[in-house]
Amino acid sequence: MPSNAGRRPLPTKLRILHGERHKDRLNQDEPVPVPTSPQVPEQASLAVQQVWRETVRELEGMGLAYASDADSLRCFCEAVVQHRRACAVLSKSPVLVVGLHGNLVRNPALQIQRDCAQTIRAFAQEFGLTPSARSSIRSREAGGPIEDNPYADSGS
């Protein structure tokens, strides 16, 4: 059984943006999604739709917005909204609350906040939306044309 230890490989497009110069390290057979932006899920709350629009705008700016990522993007947006709600609850309530048996226990909103933060971080890393993910991405505008870039003429 193969081990899942270590870093997961980045998509080829991100590897190129990160500055991968060795053609033999790129997956030449990687499926390329249809270059269409994901549509706002109409059944999502207004708060989720707002986060969606902001996030898609960022992804489009990086050339990384694809309709095939809609479900993952929705998970990210839902987690952002839930995290904000948990933060709002925690700003108005104590960290310790009276539990079922009268003793002090951690506010359950802390767990929600932490779980959502982990989800946000994981999806943001996948989408290239964290400072560490961006720190190694090189855009054509910032660093000139990227040599051996198979996406150079794709309009992305």
Poorly predicted runs are 141-152
Mean pLDDT: 84
Instruction: Tell the overall outline.
Output: elongated
Specify the helix fraction band: 40-55%
For the biggest sheet, the summary is: 2 strands, antiparallel
Strand order of the largest sheet: 1-2
**Oligomeric grouping of the chains:** single chain
Task: Tell me what you see in this structure.
The protein is mostly helical and 156 residues long. The protein has one domain (12-143). Helices cover 47% and strands 4% of the residues. The chain contains six helices and two strands; from the N terminus they run H-H-H-E-E-H-H-H. Strand 1 (96-98) and strand 2 form a beta hairpin. The chain is elongated and about 65 Å long. The two termini are 37 Å apart. Residues 141-152 have low confidence and may be disordered.
Which features characterize this protein?
about 160 residues; mainly alpha; two-stranded antiparallel ribbon; 6 helices; about 5% strand
What topology emerges from the helices and strands here?
Blueprint: H1 12-17, H2 46-61, H3 70-92, E1 96-98, E2 104-106, H4 108-127, H5 131-135, H6 140-143
Antiparallel strand pairs: 1-2
Concise structural overview:
Helix content is 47%, strand content 4%. The protein is mainly alpha-helical and 156 residues long.
